[in-house]
Amino acid sequence: MLFLLSKLLVDKFIKNSELTTDEKVRGSYGVLGGVVGIIINFILFVVKLLVGLIVSSIAITADAFNNLSDAFSSIITIVGFKMANKPADEEHPFGHGRMEYISALIVAFLVMLVGFQFIKSSFNKILNPSKIEFELIPFILLLISIFLKLWLSRFNKFIGEKINSQALKASSVDALGDVFTSSCVAISFLASKFITFPIDGYFGFFVAIFIVYSGFNLVKDTINPLLGEAPDAELVKNIKKMVLSYDHIIGIHDLIIHNYGPGKCMASIHAEVPSDISIMTIHEVIDLAEREISKKLNILLVIHMDPICMINQENLTAYDELNTIISAYPYIKSMHDFRVVGEGENKNLIFDIVISPDRSIPNKDTIKENIITEIKKIHPDYDCIITIDTNFL
After folding, report:
1. Distance, CA of 154 to CA of 55 (rounded, Å)
2. Residue 272: strand pairing partners
3. For residue 310, what pLDDT is reported?
4. How far apart are CA 128 and CA 145, in angstroms?
């Protein structure tokens, strides 16, 4: 039933709702989520505030103002979506998509602020307790509010997953946390009918701590994409698989993905191609791959071409020997851009290696020295030029 209601709202208010990669459709989802959040949370604020004042419960009042902050959070979410959909300009050539992350971060700080305020209020209630009179109608209203928050959480999750929105997913988690805190408040209110212990202040304190904790988790989740978190594993897998599917591309490396907001990604990758193929032929292949993959994955993909000479038997032998050497070092993830330069015995082996980000591995100079020592055992006259890359994935 919860799913059907969510789908009904989407079908009624969002035109072309299945075109979730379209910026206008995506913005409509964000506005719908925000408007629904404002309506539900403001209703809950009014109901809980009245109940809290009537029965003199700090826990219920704290929960009420938590709902009010959620209503303001929904307003910020709407503003964030509107600003994120602004087109690119001279100052922001990649658009304004990260405004959605910033709006989610503001929401998270507001949640924490409300929590800290009610930690103080609850502590005062513990020191100066007052008797709470249980009444059936306010208790029923609390139960109804829990159901509404549960539906709101499911609704935000539904549309958040539809458009892959961190802001709406955060709102879903926040609403689910409110279900938990409101349930605790209801239990506290019910318990006041049977015991004289001033449980209300303690439950209010617990609710406030949970609000702060939820806000902290939201801050962590929303600040990661702003700092530059690792890209989505499925996107990485699809880019690699699709690039390798094109003719003449025999290897890939140095994939870097920049996130400029949901649905606004720029990626660059190096594609290894045989050096004996016409430059015009491989250029057409690279151009075709960039256009088709960018369109299919809704990203901006740039492919750098790396010619690889693997027709010479000496090169092939040296390549196999080097692969055997680096396989003994588990922290070396891959090797690329291999080439042999020079004449006779005095040759340079030039290549890049990718190492894991584990801080426990040797430093880069030590890694280079170990590899050079092993190569010298086989080819004393060979010199090595090694570049150590970082894995950006």
Report:
1. 30
2. 251, 306
3. 63
4. 28
